[in-house]
Design goal:
This protein is mostly helical. Helix content is 58%, strand content 11%. The protein contains five helices and three strands; from the N terminus they run αβααββαα. α4 packs across α5. The longest helix is centred in the C-terminal third of the chain and has 31 residues.
Length: 135
C-alpha cells in the first residue's frame, strides 16, 4: 500500500474508532513514511490531514514525537463532528455561522446526553428511593 492510499483510508479508520482517535506524533510521522518529526515533515502531515478532512488537536502539530494528538473526522455526525464544531468555535472569530454552529453543537450534545441521562436519572432515583427494611 502506498502512503497516499494509507492517507486516503485514514478517515475510514478514524470512523471505525468512533470518529476520533489518539495518536502520538511519532505514529503520524511513521504513517507518513518518515523517520523524524521535523518542521517540514509536520507541515506535510498537516497538509495530508487537511486533504483527507481530518482535524487535529492541538491545531498546530508539535515536532516532539512523544506528544499526543487527537485526530477526528470532520465529516461524520458523531463525536468527531462535535470536536470539529468545538474547535471551530474556539479558534474562529464570531461570524454569520456562529449562531448556527452553536445551535448545532447544542443539538448534538443533547443527543449524546440523552443516551446517558436515563441511566443517571435511574441511578439517582434508586439512591433516593425509600428503602424497605425487612428486618
Amino acid at each position: 500500500m502506498t502512503t497516499e492510499q494509507a492517507w486516503a483510508e485514514l478517515p475510514a479508520f478514524i470512523d471505525f474508532k468512533g470518529g476520533y482517535d489518539l495518536w502520538d506524533v511519532e505514529r503520524l510521522v511513521r504513517f507518513a513514511g518518515s523517520q523524524k518529526a521535523g518542521v517540514r515533515i509536520v507541515e506535510r502531515i498537516e497538509q495530508q490531514l487537511v486533504e483527507n478532512n481530518i482535524g487535529h488537536l492541538p491545531t498546530k502539530l508539535p515536532t516532539d514525537s512523544t506528544c499526543r494528538v487527537l485526530l477526528y473526522n470532520k465529516d461524520q455526525p458523531n463525536l468527531g463532528f462535535v470536536l470539529r464544531l468545538v474547535h471551530e468555535l474556539a479558534t474562529q472569530d464570531v461570524n454569520d455561522n456562529t449562531n448556527a454552529s452553536i445551535h448545532q453543537l447544542k443539538t448534538l450534545l443533547d443527543s449524546i446526553s440523552a443516551v446517558y441521562q436515563p441511566t443517571a436519572r435511574r441511578d439517582a432515583a434508586a439512591r433516593h428511593a425509600p428503602r424497605s427494611d425487612a428486618s
